[in-house]
Amino acid sequence: MFSHTSAQAADYTHVVVGAGAVGLAIARKLAQRDGTSTLLIERHGSVGTETSSRNSEVIHAGLYYGPTSLKTELCLKGKRMMYDLCEEKKIPYRNCGKWILAQNSQQHEQLDKTHEFTKSIGVPTNFISLAKARFQEPDVHAANAVLESPTTGIIDSHSYMSYLESDFQSKGGDLACHTVVNGIETATQGYRIHTTSPSGDTASITTETLINSAGLAAVPLSNSLLPSERHLKPYYAKGSYYSYAGSHPRPKRLIYPAPTTGAAGLGTHLTMDMTGAIRFGPDVEWVDDPNDLTVNEDRLSAALDEIQTYLPSIEREKVMLDYAGIRPKLGKGSAVASGKGDGFSDFYIKKEEGFEGFVNLLGIESPGLTSSLAIADKVHDLLYR
Q1: Distance between CA 360 and CA 221 in Å, rounded?
Q2: What is the per-residue pLDDT across 208-233, written as a single tens digit (0 to 9) for each?
Q3: Angle formed by the axes of helices 157-170 and 21-31, to 10°?
Q4: Contacts of 41 (CB under 8 A, 6+ apart)
Q5: Torsion 14-17-23-28 (CA) sign
Q6: Cα separation of 235 and 314, whole Å?
Q7: In angstroms, how far is the first alpha carbon of the chain from the final one?
Q8: Residue 341 burial (CB count, 10 A)
Q9: Would the pTM of this model clear 0.90, i.e. be above it?
């Protein structure tokens, strides 16, 4: 499958490990450079089968991540890039907007803070009256306030990743699926990567630059190369999603509860796919096994109680277990940056000191899909600027 290494040159200029949305975007960006070669390695049989395809498919506006974080910077840039690409390449998307709801005065204060923050970073949000909200979405209950985010949207993530894969390969990139990376070491040419196929065949390749975009496996992969004092601990937040078989209610926009300071997620919210089918989730369940994708039935009742706070006419018996996804995290802190010791974890994207040409991407959770094109630009600039 791979070319043989000569003593003079590495097999590839770039190797990207992990073909989720972020890895695909990075590989596509690097493959655009003249006179280079790029290999994208994926352990599954096709691209984007882990976190990238087990999420809410939301194009995030960038409301929650603080003024100076990489998540904010890359979400805002990535959102613009994603909308532009979808429009240009006819990738299915919808700029449907989102409402964030307050059911009491304390939650209203949280929405006020969110609104003030978004003004400071140039992201539009606006309060709409409860009367207007009831007129536009009569089935949605908001007792205290509604904050609208007009730049939030949804995307067909599978079509998006299919485009990235096709464009990467049209630029001469190589994709190796069913290929497990089981060892990395430094080499004269840069890095030697040891791989195994499903049949047990082994191979090794060399590369000048190595990009670790392995998602759920990124921290273990990083730890296999970096010295022990630079090892990190991976955390895995499983989120269960629920489908809805009822014909009513069917809101026309995304509905989120007010963010809770210190919570590891944004609450069990309502999203929809490109057909208009609604779903709910994710919740947060800390697990030790990143392969545990069983939907936890025990959590359904609590999720239904939360859903009914903003969608009281939901038919509980028509909410079904759907799927689960796992978010790679670097801690159990808050999903919302409050600046008050909340444990908020930013994206970790950096060239590792002492390991020339090695770029590490760790904790790439939400808003990773939205940020993917901007992350690709950042990785390119880390290597070439």
Answers
A1: 9
A2: 999 999 999 999 999 999 999 999 99
A3: 30
A4: 15, 16, 17, 18, 19, 176, 179, 181, 193, 195
A5: positive
A6: 33
A7: 32
A8: 9
A9: yes
